[in-house]
Amino acid sequence: LYGAKAGEIVKKYGQNINDDIINKNGLIPAARDVSFDVRKGEIFVIMGLSGSGKSTILRCMTGLIEPTMGQLTVSGKDLGTASRQDLIGMRRKVMGMVFQDFALLPHLTVLDNVAFPLKVQGKSRAERHAKAREMVELVGLEGREAYLPHELSGGQQQRVGIARSLTTEPEIWFLDEPFSALDPLIRAEMQDEFLRLQNLLQKSIVFVTHDFDEAIGLADRIAIMAGGRVVQIGTPEELITNP
Ligand code: ADP
Ligand code: ADP
């Protein structure tokens, strides 16, 4: 059973020569022949240096850009045959997303930020708030429902981001460098918090990071990207013993 599947994904950005990586072999795509599967309930980490193609793959998987070639299935749905409207619907209902910069709405309270995806879905105020309160509690922010984002520490702001990404009970959870903006101690605390939540929720997860230690610490399996390709794929144990 798969949470997601990528088959020989190639992505070339535009026709502009500056859009793609140029190396001694000439012009190469931002992503090329990228294949992997994300199993149901696993933490699948995409790891690689800056420019290796991680965001390109993530943007393809979340339907923000279209691959030049290849197949993508996310939560049983073939993205290649999905309409624009289908993709918007999937982003609202099936996918949960957490961003490096938290991407909170600065003038909304913690509770309203967390409730926001349900507002977009047209849920009643009572239903939104009940669910949002539950999520705020889940991430340990009870008592801070009425705070504004700037009144919270970075770690707390990302707890709000995490709570918001889970209010719609997504089938697949995408986290894009979620802890990279945080201080090392807070980062470690948030990694523990993330594992605690996953233990509870058992989501299918795509987690993007450039941090090898973070990948090793969190992943069930890791895909290492370099130059737009997946150069290695395996469990942390496999990657440590067979580097
Ligand atoms: P990563 O997320 O690992 O840092 P990216 O997927 O952002 O890597 O980038 C892979 C390659 O694609 C890089 O060479 C980058 O410059 C290029 N690239 C990324 N986004 C765009 C874009 N919107 N237009 C053109 N080139 C892009
Ligand atoms: P950190 O040291 O983790 O960055 P802060 O020093 O920013 O945390 O905040 C410590 C505590 O004070 C947090 O619980 C936060 O919610 C609260 N806090 C921070 N700024 C404000 C503020 N402007 N108004 C009310 N509470 C605040």
Automatic annotation (TrEMBL):
One of its GO terms (molecular function) is ATP hydrolysis activity. Its EC number is 7.6.2.9. Keywords: ATP-binding, Nucleotide-binding, Transport. It is an enzyme of class 7 (translocase). Residues 16-243 form the ABC transporter domain. It catalyses: a quaternary ammonium(out) + ATP + H2O = a quaternary ammonium(in) + ADP + phosphate + H(+). Belongs to the ABC transporter superfamily. The complex is probably composed of two ATP-binding proteins (TmoW), two transmembrane proteins (TmoV) and a solute-binding protein (TmoX). This is Trimethylamine N-oxide transport system ATP-binding protein TmoW. It comes from Roseovarius nanhaiticus.
